[in-house]
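Sequence, please.
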């Protein structure tokens, strides 16, 4: 038998071996990740639902899918274990920039404000009114003309 006729079969067997090897490696990593779950961590199920782990047993995990609502899932149904920052960003919309950390100023002069500065700060923080003006306010405003009697 010629070696060239056996080469395609050897090549196919080698590719299949490499594919199954990488699949087994991914399965082992997923099983290891599921075994490291602890109560209080956020998870995403394979169905795309986000929940918090409440209790872990050998083959199942009790997840809190909403406040006060618990469901029992198979460990194989857990798609990813999320860190706290990622879970809060996805579920609650809280990012690291949203968390306000009070800093201590270098000098005491920045701790005191005069009344004008405090009033300016308060007006800058007030929300902008984007609602429609009343008809009475519109009638009280003078109309602008271009000099030829036409109103704009």
């Amino acid at each position: 038998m010629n070696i060239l006729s056996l080469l395609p079969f050897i090549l196919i067997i080698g590719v299949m071996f490499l594919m199954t090897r990488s699949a087994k490696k991914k399965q082992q990593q997923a099983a290891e990740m599921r075994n490291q779950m602890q109560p209080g961590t956020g998870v995403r199920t394979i169905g795309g639902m986000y929940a918090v782990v409440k209790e872990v047993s050998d083959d199942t995990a009790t997840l809190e899918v909403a406040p006060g609502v618990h469901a029992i899932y198979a460990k194989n149904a857990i798609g990813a274990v999320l860190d706290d920052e990622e879970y809060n960003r996805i579920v609650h919309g809280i990012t690291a920039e949203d968390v306000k950390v009070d800093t201590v100023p270098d000098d005491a002069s920045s701790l005191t404000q005069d009344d004008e500065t405090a009033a300016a700060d308060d007006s800058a923080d007030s929300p902008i009114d984007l609602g429609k003006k009343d008809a009475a306010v519109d009638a009280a405003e003078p109309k602008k003309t271009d000099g030829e009697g036409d109103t704009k």
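The longest strand covers residues 50-56.
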